Amino acid sequence: MLLQLAGWWKDTSRRREAGAKLFLGAAAVPGGFAELGRNLVFMAGFYAWAIAQVMKVFTTFYKEGKWTLKPLMESGGMPSSHSSLVMGVTTAVALKHGLGSTLFPICLAFSLIVMYDAAGVRRHAGKQAEVLNMIVAELFHGHPVSETQLKELIGHTPSQVLAGALLGVLIPMFCMPSLSLIGR
To answer: Any idea which of 9-13, 92-96, 145-149 has the lowest mean pLDDT?
Structure first.
């Protein structure tokens, strides 16, 4: 069985065909991708994430004094789009299903874990990358390995996480009146 699976995996045309069926199968589900556009909880998270990513272009300009679109495709920066996304979904679930629903504490726990990770583990990994880059540059100066840099901006400061979380709470409340008590 394992050898058959290994043989199947080596056949790239069969893998591509299976991947296409999986992707098209998701589109063939009743409602398909269009149904996601009508899912207000999903859209709240998506809008919160997208707005946070676009805001990074402006905060980068404010900080560095030059316009660049690089922050749209990078992690890290102000505000945290991860925090914005998870809090957007959590807020939308709270507004749609209520704080007493079984779904809300699951979303809240997920959000807190993501935000803790962004400000804790990922931030410290970035600091370690910064130190390793300095060590490699000093010890291997002139060697090809010294030209390789680890990514240093992979986490967030607590203020970046807080700003993303606040944005994630505000987007569903003000931009999606059918979910919000404010729009009623």
So the answer is: 9-13
Name the token pair of 126. 């970035």
Q: Can you read off the two tokens belonging to residue 180?
A: 């919000």
Q: How many residues does the chain have?
A: 184
**Cα(45)–Cα(42) distance, integer angstroms:** 5
Instruction: Give the tens place of pLDDT for each residue, 49-107.
Output: 999 999 988 887 887 788 877 776 777 778 888 899 999 999 999 998 989 999 999 99
Q: Where are the alpha helices (DSSP H) in the chain?
A: 2-10, 12-28, 32-38, 40-64, 81-97, 103-119, 121-139, 158-175
Could you tell me the pTM of the whole model? 0.68
State the DSSP H helix or E strand holding residue 151, giving kind and residue range, or none if neither. none
Q: How far apart are CA 167 and CA 45, in angstroms?
A: 10
The span from the CA of 61 to the CA of 180, in Å, is 33
Helix (H, G, I), strand (E, B) or coil at 99: coil
pLDDT computed for residue 81 by the predictor: 87
- How many angstroms separate the CA atoms of 109 and 101, rounded? 14
Spatial CA neighbour of 119 closest among 69, 168, 154, 84: 154
Q: What span, in angstroms and rounded, lies between the C-alpha atoms of 107 and 103?
A: 6
